[in-house]
Structure formats: structure tokens, C-alpha cells
Amino acid sequence: MYKIAKATFRNRGSSVASLFCYLQTRSISRQSKVVKTKTMVEKEDMNVTRVLFCGPHFPNSNNFTREYLQPYPFIQVDVVPIPEVPEVINKYHICVVKTMRLDSNVISLARKMKLIMQYGVGLEGVDIDAATKYGIKVARIPSEGTGNAASCSEMAIYLMLGLLKKQNEMQISVRSRLLGVPAGDTLFGKTVFILGYGNIGRELAKRLKPFESRVIATKRSWTASINDSDSSLVDEKGSHEDIYTFAGKADIVVVCLTLNKETADVVNNKFICSMKKGALLINISRGGLINYESTYENLESGHLGGLGIDVAWSEPFDPNDPILKFKNVIITPHVAGVTEYSYMSMAKIVGDVALQLHEGLPLTGIEFVN
């Protein structure tokens, strides 16, 4: 059965471009269809491999995956409200966590589960030790090659330009019928510190070069991690121990780290105070990397010149949060990686993994962490 499916993939093209064209020719519902628990429990076909998407957020992840798998009725894709996941998780073979936190208690209920994965790279919400204990593999989709890194790096550019050009103040001028104000700034000649030079950091460095920005970056280990062409994108390299020194050299700091126990709150008061007065802070990774209180206080004092974030300390972000009172704050709703290019690419990976699991074949295209 999988061989037939594989042949079909080959015929319609396995490249991202082919996938893009394929999905654009079909009618895709933009609304997430949340399946009722009763419907899922009643369907007990032993020949069906079930894929569980947790919660209603990021609806295109399940919409695109369902569309990609539409020709294969032996794969079932369901979206379940987060509070109901513990009630039905025992029916599923693959779980795509999205924003849900899967702790040991929930994972212990997943008796048929073979794989827990993220529609992207972040796995901080998954108790990996518990999954390992119960014999469940945990994996992420690498950002390289899926369009995710490219999409996130473009969002970083957007946030930088939005702050430099004073996006919020420009809207005030439009409403006030004013011309020629505010006076903005340029990326030209700016020193940009990429905190965490991984896949997203490399894509960002590529996009900063045409602006003639100076790029400095830190990474825990540079050994054999990047090729010569990528290495030339960085004007100065440092290790994690150099982050405070590099913060003091930068006009803009872009946080591109993975969130874990070691990196949580890494951008704290010490770090922000190490930055130049008036420097900008951008975060396109995870909200937990930046300390909220320190950020707020340094915006209020004027030490921090601006904040641009696509991820927040709690999500969805509170529209009444007092940090939004500052004109030099831009917040977007966790959409840096949410582009048709990246989401169609990741839908193909999730779909292929489901088909491989159904046929008992090795799972490819994903990065295991246990």
C-alpha cells in the first residue's frame, strides 16, 4: 500500500515546488475542523493509522496535512480541543503537539502512540523522558529545507525594519494627517547580533548582507557546523560565554536560540543592561528566552530602544498587556514560520511519516531527540 502511495508521490513530484502546485490546485478549508470525541471513539478500524493534532491554534498545520493525505483513507487526521486530548489520546498513533504541554500523566495514557512530534522545531512542551519511558519516539521537523528557517528569518527582518522605521508612530502620523514624520532609521551599517547561529541564524545572515549590515553571532560550537560560504556571512564569531560582550557591540540583537533549561531567561537584566542604550531586541524563537520584567523595565527607562517579538511569554498574548503601551513595541501572533511555503513542506513530512508508520517502514524527514 505504501509503495502505491510512494509511487503517487513520485508521479506528482516530491519537491516543494511540486507540492506547492499540487495543494494550490485543490480546495483547502481555512477553518480548522475540530472532531468531536464521540466520532473518534466510534471509529475503530484496526487498519487505520490515526494522527492527532492538539488544539485549534495554527490551523493550517492540520488543514494542509489533511489535504495532503486525502487520497489515503487509511490515514485519519483529527483535531482535538486541548482539554479533551487526555480522553482520546489512547486512540492515536501519532501526536502533533502544537501548543499543548504533554506531561507524564498525559503521555502515560497514550497506549498506542508510536511518535510524538512538533509541526516545527520546538519540543519544550513535551516531557521527553516520560515519552522515552513509555517507548514513544519524540521528533521535530528540522527548519532547514522546509522553508521554516527562511520564513522566520524574513519575519526578523520585518520586525527590525518595523522598529527602525517606527511603524507604530507612522500609523499615528497617518491618522493625524501628518507628512514627513517620524524620522526613521536604516539597517544599512547596523551591527546585528544573532544570538544562536543555527538554521534560522544562517538564513538571517544571508538576508542581512544586502543591507550592508555587520553580522556578529554566537554559537556553542562552531566546529564543522557551517560550510565556508556560510562562514563568510559572519563578521565576528563567538561562543556562549561571549554573549554579554557581543550584546554591547550590537545595534540590534536577534534571539534565535532553542528554548531549554539552559537558555530559559537568557536575555535577563544583566544581558539587556549589557546592550547599547537604544539598541533593539528581536525575538523569533520562544517567549521564555526573554525575561518579561527586565524587558518591561528597560523599555520604561529608555535603555531598550525597541522590542519586536513574534513569540510571547504566554500565548495567545494578552491584548491588554501593559507592555503594549510603548510605541516602540511590535508584537506579531507567532506567525514567523506560518507561510504556505513552510507549512506545505511540513505537511508533506507529517503525511509521509504517517504513511511510513502505517507500513512499518523507517521514519524519515524528521529529527529524533530520544
UniProtKB/TrEMBL annotation:
Residue span(s) of domain D-isomer specific 2-hydroxyacid dehydrogenase NAD-binding: 158-336
Keyword vocabulary terms for this entry: Oxidoreductase
GO molecular function: oxidoreductase activity
Residues of the D-isomer specific 2-hydroxyacid dehydrogenase catalytic domain: 84-354
SUPFAM superfamilies linked to this entry: Formate/glycerate dehydrogenase catalytic domain-like (SSF52283), NAD(P)-binding Rossmann-fold domains (SSF51735)
PROSITE patterns, alphabetized: D_2_HYDROXYACID_DH_3
Xref: InterPro entries: D-isomer_2_OHA_DH_cat_dom (IPR006139), D-isomer_DH_CS (IPR029753), D-isomer_DH_NAD-bd (IPR006140), NAD(P)-bd_dom_sf (IPR036291)
Keyword Oxidoreductase: yes
Keyword Oxidoreductase: yes
Membership in a protein family: Belongs to the D-isomer specific 2-hydroxyacid dehydrogenase family.
Protein name (record): D-3-phosphoglycerate dehydrogenase 1
